[in-house]
Specification:
The complex is a heterodimer of chains A (262) and B (791). Chain A is of the alpha+beta class. Chain A has 3 domains: 45 residues, Uridine Diphospho-n-acetylenolpyruvylglucosamine Reductase, domain 2 (2-Layer Sandwich); 110 residues, Uridine Diphospho-n-acetylenolpyruvylglucosamine Reductase, domain 3 (2-Layer Sandwich); 94 residues, CO dehydrogenase flavoprotein, C-terminal domain (Enolase-like, domain 1, 2-Layer Sandwich). Chain A contains 10 helices and 12 strands. Chain A has a 5-stranded antiparallel beta sheet with strand order 4-5-8-6-7. In chain A, α3 runs antiparallel to α4. The longest helix of chain A has 18 residues. Chain A is globular and about 55 Å long. With 791 residues, chain B is an alpha+beta fold. Chain B has 19 helices and 28 strands. In chain B, strands 3-5-1-12-9-10-11 form a 7-stranded mixed beta sheet, sandwiched between helices. In chain B, β22 and β23 form a beta hairpin. In chain B, α14 packs parallel to α15 and α15 crosses α16. The N and C termini of chain B lie far apart (57 Å). The chains are: A alpha+beta (262), B alpha+beta (791).
Chain lengths: 262, 791
């Protein structure tokens, strides 16, 4: 790791100001950033910690929305979202290991947009809103491909607002080494239709499986997906699975999520 | 019941007190005064010509003391290979130089090019980035068969090709084997890959070199399984330091699994640099570096054939294996695919004719050497897979086919056609025990239940044998070993009766400090707490060849028994003097010497005190003191064997395999500490299951390591393995060592991979996927799914 300066502001405004500095980077849980710095693949001049900002933490119900502060660790979401949005809480409880869950945050995960991360699938399938220090961004507009988002330089996610669905579930097939999603499906049923978001499978990062959504919107049952499969075009192929395998898992994991949804 | 703390007692491991409380003393815990830190700049390409190394800018960086390149090692030898294999034409293997730092060429990703020594590890690494290295990248030889093509890039320009050797065993039998195949009623053929693995001990490698110029004494502290071997190899062949001026210490070592047997460049470097700089020099490997610099394991590609007669008796075996050596010959690499592999190809069976061909190949990859089992897992995997495949082809029960061909108890000692003589065994007994413990009779009902849940249940069987307790020195000398393979022990009885044992073996997880003490305490009849086991320091332990090949108790323990018997014999003489009786009448029981048939007695401490305070002592005929050393050179290998059963489910939708139960019925001969034996089996099974289902070390066509971290190299975790059922009640004690022990350290890793894969194939066959006759390891979900769906 190269030397760097470290600041831990107490307010969003101070954090934004600090991020305006030369080669400054925001640090939330650091579960991706710190390993890359240790490997000397990333060398910020200044790290601006966001976890000292109380306004970015916590889980609260606002009407039919569950609002989660961006610097809330996965373990807290797993516990505090359990009553209002159990599928989201279950997803958070399956991320990484206890260390990751107690350090990693939802804002950090979404800003990083790892194509195999879990949170992007719940965010997209829920049609959630990403709140930043300057604006609100719909999930459909936020994820712009592998490790790419709509965030501007220096823009900070402050919260994520999840509309609470009637039914939802996440089904994750784990990559055996990293235990990231080899393919994960988040299914959420709302009054106006069903949304299905797939993570881990596509070279374009998290995506909505529109054929699956159409079938489930008219009949919310695992059987409705029989015969449906995603195309292998654009799917990730690596040591752990071919594009064909991932395309197959899109159908399997979506069916399992539907069967588990409650 | 065994005496508490004696042979047969499940005494808790005394070393765990410090290990489990974070108070172990590992090499990296050592920080010497004035210590400098080394950082190895390693090649990022698999194959290239070094055009220029410019260290000027780096040398001027803060804290830098000196930068070393190959030029500094011109007067120094290469890293030696400890075994010379002779090929099928009687010619010695091709043996390239293995320089401490790359000379002229880099030959694998991770090959060290330069070393920065600085005041801190961070400064050394910072400066390494300022070294300018110009490399002309060359095409890499990665795939073994492609590497043998006439126009393949040559890993070593001064060799005739990338072929290290072409070995035939037993070459004289080849024609007879071919004839048996021509006359066979049935021939089963299987092509398989035993994939490359990364050992990944919990503690990465560390080396600290130290030099005392006033006494011209060098010391190397290192993470080694065999400090005496390192002293011999490094002192005599690399640095030219005689043994009396070189001390090697391997303190607490956090696992090795074979990868810490070998002499590595980093050890020689730190010792050399400390002498040059007259300051201690430390290197600590990162996990990433370990993936690029620790010797890796396995990596065989094999075509195997089994011939049977019309009654399903095995008549011949023929194999052709390509074995990857990597870029250089690691210490024992040539012996692994040959003498540790070909000699086990008979397995538990009476097959009369066997021919094993092995082509060892240099490639632009990390060197490959022994990893838990070393050659024996590769042999067992081939054999137990092909027996299963033959049973399916013939439509017979795989258990019955094995039993029919087992060597029978009344046939021991049994000379195989591959040069070894099994001393004892009872393979039907271990098979029976495994089937009983696993409730094989209830399998059909359980399979039905799985079917109702949409899962495919299978039961895989393997019966292994291994040759452990290596080895008779005169035999291995004939086979090309450049070392003896005896062990040693010094038993120093102190004046008050406590005992300090010094063993040439090394413990890095095996629990010697507990079990070796149990042996001595049991023989004398004293409390095990009176016995302390010292190991790992060449300055106070007798020469020993180290710990690997499940040999420590069978060979090191035998030396310990010999030394303890010498102690007992002398103590009886002292007791006879004290009791004014004839030596022949002295009996030792429960730590007390008595005169047979009388109540005259003297206790252990009375005798030991007399030995060191010899006021009433036969000084005219006997030396005072009570200390003995013994060396033990085994007369044969030991032959642990066992039956393994793996019950599993395949999820037909995803191809994921879940192991539901794993049963191991092992014959380890006599057992000193059943709890430790069980733990050894558990660990071996986890590694074998890891190989069967998860682990895979993969290079791309350019020689880049694709699985270079735990993000892609899948290590088994606790929830990937089942609760094991382990039994070692079927034992046929070894006939030729004093404890009757056979060794247990590698068994789990040897027997489990074929049991798991046989289970996967069984599940798929029962589930109607009759076209799937083989899946290469690891049987990952994607591979199983692809096989099921013909992808």
């Amino acid at each position: 790791m190269y030397n760097f300066d470290f600041v831990k502001p107490a307010s969003v405004a101070d954090a934004v100001a600090a991020l305006a500095g030369e080669e400054a980077q925001p640090l939330s849980g650091g579960m991706t950033l710190l390993p890359s710095m240790k490997q000397r693949l990333n060398a910020p001049a200044t790290l601006v910690s966001l976890t000292g900002i109380d306004a970015l933490k916590g889980v609260c119900r606002e009407g039919n929305m569950l609002v989660i502060g961006a610097a809330t660790p996965h373990a807290v979401v797993a516990k505090e979202a359990a009553a209002d949005y159990p599928a989201l809480a279950a997803l958070a409880g399956q991320i990484g290991d206890p260390m990751v869950r107690n350090r990693g945050t939802i804002g950090g995960s979404l800003a990083n947009n790892d194509p195999s991360a879990c949170y992007p699938s719940a965010t997209l399938a829920s049609g959630a809103t990403i709140v930043t220090n300057t604006r609100e961004i719909a999930a459909d507009d936020f994820f712009q491909g592998m490790f790419s988002t709509a965030l501007h330089e220096g823009e900070i996610i402050t919260a994520v607002k999840f509309p609470i669905p009637e039914k939802a579930a996440y089904a994750k097939f784990m990559q055996p080494a990293s235990r990231f999603a080899l393919t994960g499906a988040f299914v959420a049923k709302y009054a106006d239709g069903v949304r299905v978001a797939i993570t881990g499978a596509s070279e374009g990062g998290v995506f909505r499986w529109s054929e699956g959504e159409a079938a489930l919107s008219s009949n919310f049952s695992a059987e409705a997906l029989n015969g449906l499969s995603a195309s292998a075009d654009g799917m990730i192929g690596d040591l752990h699975g071919t594009p064909d395998y991932r395309a197959h898992l899109v159908g399997v994991m979506t069916r399992r999520a539907v069967a588990a949804a409650h | 019941m065994p005496k508490d703390g004696g042979i047969g007692a499940s005494t808790k491991r005394r070393e765990d007190l410090r290990f489990l409380t974070g108070n172990g003393r590992y090499t990296d815990d050592l920080n010497l005064r004035g210590q400098l830190h080394a950082y190895f700049l390693r090649s990022q390409v698999a194959h290239g010509r070094i055009d220029k190394i410019d260290t000027a800018d780096a040398a001027a960086m803060p804290g830098v003391v000196r930068i070393f390149t190959a030029k500094d090692f011109e007067a120094v030898g290469g890293i030696p290979c400890g075994w010379q294999v002779t090929d099928k034409h009687g010619q010695p293997m091709q043996e390239p130089k293995h320089p401490v730092l790359a000379e002229g060429k880099v030959r694998h990703v991770g090959d060290p090019i330069a070393v920065v020594v600085a005041e801190s590890a961070e400064q050394a690494r910072d400066a390494s980035e300022a070294i300018v290295v110009d490399i002309t990248e060359l095409p890499a030889a990665v795939d073994m068969k492609a590497a043998l093509a006439a126009d393949a890039p040559k890993v070593h320009d001064d060799l005739t090709s990338n072929l290290c050797y072409d070995w035939g065993f037993v070459e004289e039998n080849k024609a007879a084997v071919d004839e048996a195949f021509a006359n066979a009623a049935h021939v089963t053929t299987l092509e398989l890959v035993n994939q490359r693995l990364v050992a990944n001990p919990m503690e990465p490698r560390v080396a600290v070199g130290d030099y005392d110029p006033w006494n011209d004494q060098s010391t190397l502290y290192t993470t080694s399984q065999n400090p005496h071997v390192i002293r011999l190899l490094m002192g005599a062949f690399v640095l030219g330091i005689p043994e009396h001026k070189l001390r090697v210490v391997a303190p607490d070592v956090g696992g090795g699994f074979g990868s810490k047997i070998f002499h590595y460049a980093e050890e020689a470097f730190c010792t050399f640099a400390a002498r040059q700089l007259k300051k201690p020099v430390k290197w600590t490997s990162s996990r990433s570096e370990a993936f690029l610099s620790d010797a890796q394991g396995r990596d065989h590609v094999t075509k195997m054939q089994l011939a049977l007669d019309a009654d399903n008796n095995f008549t011949a075996i023929r194999t052709e294996t390509y074995a990857n050596m990597g870029a250089y010959l690691s210490t024992f690499a040539p012996s692994v695919p040959t003498w540790l592999h070909g000699t086990l190809m008979a397995g538990n069976y009476k097959t009369p004719l066997i021919y094993v061909n092995v082509k060892a190949v240099f490639t632009n990859t990390v060197p490959v050497d022994a990893y838990r089992g070393a050659g024996r897992p590769e042999a067992t995997y081939q054999l137990e897979r092909i027996v299963d495949k033959a049973a399916r082809e013939l439509g017979v029960d795989p258990i019955a086919l094995r039993r029919q061909n087992f060597i029978q108890p009344d046939q021991f000692p049994y000379a195989t056609p591959v040069a070894v003589e099994y001393d004892t065994g009872n393979y039907d007994a271990t098979m029976d025990k495994m089937l009983e413990v696993a409730d094989y009779a209830g399998f059909a009902a359980r399979a039905e239940e799985s079917k109702k849940r949409g899962k495919l249940r299978g039961f895989g069987i393997a019966h292994y044998i291994e040759a452990c307790g290596i080895a008779p020195s005169n035999l291995v000398g004939q086979l090309g070993a450049r070392a003896g393979l005896y062990e040693s022990a010094t038993v120093r009885v102190n004046a008050t009766g406590s005992i300090s044992v010094f063993t040439g073996s090394h413990s890095h997880g095996q629990g010697h400090e507990t079990t070796f003490a149990q042996v001595v305490a049991d023989m004398i009849g004293i409390d095990a707490g009176q016995v302390e086991i010292n190991h790992g320091d060449t300055s106070n332990t007798p020469m020993g060849m180290g710990t690997y090949g499940s040999r420590s108790l069978a060979v090191g323990g035998s030396a310990l028994v010999k030394a303890t018997n010498k102690i007992i014999n002398k103590a009886k003489k002292i007791a006879a003097h004290l009791l004014e009786a004839a030596e022949a009448d002295i009996e030792l029981k429960d730590g007390k010497f008595s005169v047979a048939g009388t109540d005259k007695a003297v206790d252990w401490a009375g005798v030991t005190l007399a030995a060191y305070v010899p006021h009433n002592y036969p000084l005219e005929s006997m030396e005072p003191g009570l200390e003995e050393t013994a060396f033990y050179d085994p007369s044969n290998f030991t032959y642990p064997a066992g039956a393994y059963g793996c019950e599993l489910e395949v999820d037909p939708e995803t191809g994921k395999v879940e192991i539901l139960a794993f049963t191991a019925a092992d014959d380890f001969g006599n057992v000193v500490n059943p709890m430790i034996v069980e733990g050894q089996v558990h660990g071996g099974l986890a590694q074998g299951i890891g190989q069967a289902l998860m682990e895979n070390c993969v290079y791309d066509a350019d020689g880049q390591l694709v699985s270079g971290s735990f993000m892609d190299y899948a290590m088994p975790r606790a929830d990937d393995v089942p609760n094991y059922k382990v039994d070692h009640s079927c034992n046929t004690p070894c006939t030729h060592n004093p404890l009757g022990v056979k060794g247990c350290g590698e068994a789990g890793a040897i027997g489990s991979p074929p049991a798991v894969i046989n289970g996967v194939i069984d599940a798929l066959q029962r589930g109607g996927y009759s076209h799937v006759t083989h899946i290469d390891m690891p049987a990952s979900p994607s591979r199983v799914w692809a096989a099921m769906n013909g992808k």
